[in-house]
Amino acid sequence: MGALAIITNIPLASGNSWLITPNVGLTIWTLLVFAISLFILNKVAFPRIRAALDARREHISESIDAAEQARKDADQLLAEYRERLKEARAQAEEIVQRARQTAEANGHEAREQGQEILAEAARRAQRDIETATKRALDDIRREVADLTVMATEKVTRKTLTEADQRRLVEEALSELDFSGISEPSHN
Question: 111-156 and 162-175 are packed helices; what angle lies between their axes, rounded to 10 degrees?
Answer without folding.
Answer: 130
